[in-house]
Amino acid sequence: MGVQCQVLSEAEREVIHAESIRILEEIGVKFLSETARKIVSDHGARVETGSKIAKIPRELVDQALATAPRSFVLGARDPARDFALPSAYSGYILDNGGVFVRDFRSGERRNCNLQDLVDFNRVFDAMSLASVAWPATIADLFPPHSASIHTDIHSLMSSSLHIQSEFWSPREVPFILEALTAILGDEKAVKERKIFSVVYCTLAPLVHEGGMCDAYLELIEFGAPILIFPMPCAGTTGPASLFSNIAMANAEALSSLVLFQLARPGTPLVFGDAGGAANFANGTFLEGAPEMVLQTAARAEMARFYGLPNSQAGCLTDAKDHGAQAVMEKLITTLPLVLNGTDLIQGPGALETSNMMTLEQIVVDEEIAQLCKRLREGVDFSAAKNLFDDIQKVQPGGHFLMADSTLANCRTAEFFRPALCDRNPYERWSELGRPDVYSKAKERVEEILAQPQKNPLPDDVIGKLEDIMQRADEALN
Amino acid sequence: MAIQDIFQSIVAFNDAHIAEQVQAEIDAGTDIASILNEGLIQAMDAVGKQFGEGKLFVPEMLRAAQTMKVGLEVLRPHLAGAEREERGTVVIGTVKGDLHDIGKNLVAMLLEGAGFTIVDLGVDVEPEKFLEAAKAYDARLVAMSALLTTTMPQMERGVRLIREAGLHAKTVVGGAPVTEDFAIKISADGYGADAPSAVELARTLTSER
User: Fold this and answer.
1) Angle, nearest 10°, between helix axes B102-113 and B58-75?
2) Among B53, B58, B61, which would you mutate to test the A interface (most chain A Cβ atoms within 10 Å of its Cβ)?
3) How far, in Å, CA of B140 to CA of B171, rounded?
4) Pick among B150, B200, B201 to test the A interface (most A CBs inside 10 A)
5) Do the two domains B3-79 and B89-207 of this chain adopt the same fold?
6) CA A438 → CA A47, A187, A414, B100, distances in Å?
């Protein structure tokens, strides 16, 4: 059966759902987008003109849940890296690590540049559990309003994986559609392959942004999936209890589900969460805390309660550098999600509360992910693993080193082999220069970056994409 | 002894009795300046010190500031202008294109608690609005916040406008993607890494004049 964990009991899931409905019906959510207000109002939500708050009745939630797809595939530019939802194992999303990078050579924090974005994608591509890439944020290289177009297109060029991103204005939508069409050949393929999706962060507490909302209402006409990603912070932008912060995040997610299902029934939605907890000493957001993962794990279970695919924030840390804190916090914010069967976990590569990315951390996080996956798989109780005959053959006092089953099984996945953790005797480890997981990760990064880029796009397509980026600069700024 | 009760109410962030405590002192004929300085201001300084050291949490600090404010409202009609220590006005807002305001709200509340007068322009604030408000309220500080990298250039415009207008107001910037280097690059007068350091920064910059 494997090792499993559960944060919410069946009764607690019912309570979270009931509280979410109570929030939507009695308090409501604010839609800054006029289009969004009209959509929910036309379907029976009561919208107050002045406050822009819509009270959403439970019937609309039920209606939205009935039309939301239970399964779909996040396509990738390399079809071998397509990711089917729901998933039998936890896949990983390269974090959008804020604007900073830990420089691979100097170890110093600096702003992220275009080469970093390409390197992140190339290293993440080489990780076996990598499933989706969210482009890094580049602060000052591109004009602000076309920056997303640049980072998305450069990610589509440098990654084999499904790309997810964010838009702030409907004006960006035609440019990404044109880019996807240039890569995939035609609009039909854009709709079918779904190699690009967007992240929809509600603005806690209980507000839907205007520009982002309008952009996505246009984008869904082209079949793009949306990751619904509330991130209320318990104690600041959310209530100061995990129970109510989970319920409020769930209400924000359900209101997003209602909006996009009413706008276009059948829109593929990923039910996610990136809630956190306040650092009460200074008011900032905490990601590496147990209470973060308790919330996102709970929301993963709510997604399953509704029968929806899900993606959760995890594998995160508030550490400012490589080291024990990063590994400790990332492990505890990954394991519960893997053990409760979360489809996608977003966090690899990030340090400093998702403000900074590092190449080595991507490799270290793959090791954490593999360790958690092995735990999840548990103990194999199949008949083939019952080695009674060997025990009988060896008899008391012998050994199993020469048994056929030992030879057959020693390289199977049942016996985990770490890529980074050292298992040498002390003397050998010392001779090797006392490697730790980060020094080994650094070597792995160098190996990956020394290899040619996987799946490069043809030159004519790259030419079209560069033209699109240039036109976006002129049109959007 | 009773001034000590006022002090205690604030450091214990208990606003239940502060109004009566201050009123009782006024009625007893206690020196108004003593109530203000030894009761209210010294208590907030003690609280501010604990907060700066990370010993006091944000909700406790905010409640202490609210307690102080309740006491000050009772005292205010009795204050001659010269007796009040004015720290000055801070114009604050989240820059144009950005709707994220939790950091800005927190800094505004803490600055108010530290004795500044706050003019909160809200979110999505045009650089010109910062300038107008800085002029209208004779601000000593203009504080701009951003969470999105795409909106950071608006800080540069805001700082430039205020400088070009020749105002004496100092400019400070903050928010997750903002760094000290960025603040220097755009010629802002200061950068707060988090809310407590923003308060320290405001105190330092306004005492320079």
Assistant:
1) 50
2) B58
3) 9
4) B150
5) no
6) 54, 44, 25, 35
Q: From CA A59, how far away is CA A76, in angstroms rounded?
A: 35
* The dihedral formed by the CA atoms of A393, A396, A400 and A402, expressed in degrees to the nearest 10: -60
Name the pTM for this structure: 0.92
Q: What is the largest CA-CA distance in chain B?
A: 58
User: What tokens does A115 get?
Assistant: 């080469």
Answer whether A286 touches B (CB < 8 Å): no
CB pair distance less than 8 Å for B194 and A282 = yes
The ranges assigned to domains in chain B are 3-79, 89-207
Superfamily of domain B89-207 in the CATH hierarchy: Cobalamin-binding domain (3.40.50.280)
Q: What is the CATH number of domain B3-79?
A: 1.10.1240.10
pLDDT in tens, B115-141: 899 999 999 999 999 999 999 999 999
Place of tokens 């379907």: A43
Specify the 3-state DSSP secondary structure of A147.
helix
Res. B35 pLDDT band, cuts 50 70 90: very high
Task: Please name the member of A32, A139, A203 whose beta carbon is closest to the beta carbon of B177.
Answer: A139
pLDDT tens-digit series, residues A244-259: 999 999 999 999 999 9
Complex confidence, ipTM: 0.84
Maximum separation of any 2 CA atoms in chain A, in Å: 83
Q: Inter-chain contact B177–A237, Cβ cutoff 8 Å?
A: no
